[in-house]
């Protein structure tokens, strides 16, 4: 299988603390990979390095076998906080990146077409404060999707949602992935979310430890009932994180 993303011996330290030490992993084209691990282990730091916001002290990042450094438009990054601008309407927020790339009219047209698919029909002219938390996260997600990138970096995109909205969003993301055929790297604290959505789950350990274990999920036809039956996998993941 072709590797969409390869990370080789990646190193990153903040002045006083090593976070990523000789980290290597690869993600296949169209694969959905989740990253689980304790708070502070370096998940957001890794996504920031991949997105080119933080510069690694060593190692390589390759997309389709080609080395990349700095900001690469093949990555669509949804950071941990949604960061919608409160003074901009939803449509203006969604089109932000397109405006930066000077293709305003075409991007607005495309965004309008996508609003319904993202459950945001009729919200074009509203402001973030007028939307529910779930709608705001979908708006932030649509803004990310508007980048037209192949690889999505999602940092707890459904972080602060109630269990029902979260479940709806997970179903919606699964459907979206099936139809858009993107390569996904999802950071989450929610074991069930990782099991339900992923082809592979990477468990990160303490800062600098890297990947402690990886789990492959092969089931294709996933339902909530199937998820509830994954007790053994859930328990094993918990044990590995807790160790
Ligand atoms: N700008 C910074 N300068 C110095 N240390 C930082 C900085 N940002 C994060 N850290 C530290 O690096 C470690 C990893 O942080 P990071 O945000 O990547 O963790 P995380 O795994 O995403 O955690 P969480 O699950 O809580 O979001 C933490 O110990 C954090 O305190
Ligand atoms: Mg984080």
What is the CA-atom radius of gyration, in angstroms? 18 Å
Count of alpha and pi helical runs: 9
CATH architectural name of the domain at 1-74 and 185-243: 3-Layer(aba) Sandwich
CATH class assignment of the domain at 1-74 and 185-243 = Alpha Beta
Shape: globular
Question: SSE order in H/E notation?
Answer: EEEHEEEHHHHEHEHEEHH
Please identify the oligomeric state.
single chain
Bound molecules: adenosine-5'-triphosphate, magnesium ion
Class by helix and strand content?
alpha/beta
Please explain how this structure is put together:
By secondary structure, this protein is of the alpha/beta class. It has a domain at 1-74 and 185-243: Rossmann fold. 35% of the residues lie in helices and 26% in strands. It contains nine helices and ten strands. It has helices spanning 43-50, 90-94, 96-100, 104-114, 133-145, 163-180, 191-197, 224-228, 231-242; strands at 3-14, 17-28, 32-36, 58-63, 66-68, 75-78, 151-155, 183-187, 200-204, 211-216. A six-stranded mixed sheet has the order 6-7-8-3-9-10, with helices on both faces. A four-stranded antiparallel sheet has the order 2-1-4-5, covered by helices on one side. Strand 4 (58-63) and strand 5 form a beta hairpin. The radius of gyration is 18 Å and the shape is globular. The two termini are 32 Å apart. The model has no long low-confidence stretch (mean pLDDT 90). Bound molecules: adenosine-5'-triphosphate and magnesium ion. Residues 14, 17, 19, 39-45, 80, 207 line the site of adenosine-5'-triphosphate (ATP).
């Amino acid at each position: 299988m072709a590797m969409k993303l390869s990370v080789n011996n990646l190193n990153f330290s903040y002045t006083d603390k090593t976070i990523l030490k000789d980290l290597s992993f690869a993600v296949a084209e169209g694969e959905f990979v989740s990253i689980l691990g304790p708070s502070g282990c370096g998940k957001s730091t890794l996504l920031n390095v991949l997105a080119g916001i933080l510069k690694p002290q060593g190692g390589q990042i390759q997309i389709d076998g080609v080395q990349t450094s700095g900001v690469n438009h093949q990555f669509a990054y949804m950071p941990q906080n949604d960061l919608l601008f409160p003074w901009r309407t939803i449509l203006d927020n969604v089109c932000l990146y397109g405006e930066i790339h000077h293709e305003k009219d075409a991007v607005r047209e495309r965004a309008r077409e996508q609003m319904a698919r993202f459950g945001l029909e009729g919200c074009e002219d509203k402001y973030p404060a007028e939307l529910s938390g779930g709608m705001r996260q979908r708006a932030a997600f649509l803004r990310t999707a508007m980048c037209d990138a192949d690889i999505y970096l999602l940092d707890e995109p459904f972080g602060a949602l109630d269990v029902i909205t979260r479940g709806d969003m997970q179903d919606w993301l699964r459907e979206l992935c099936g139809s858009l055929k993107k390569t996904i790297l999802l950071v989450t604290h929610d074991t069930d979310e990782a099991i339900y959505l992923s082809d592979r789950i990477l468990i990160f350990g303490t800062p600098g430890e890297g990947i402690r274990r990886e789990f492959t999920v092969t089931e294709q036809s996933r339902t909530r009932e199937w998820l509830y039956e994954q007790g053994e996998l859930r328990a094993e993941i918990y044990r590995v994180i807790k160790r």
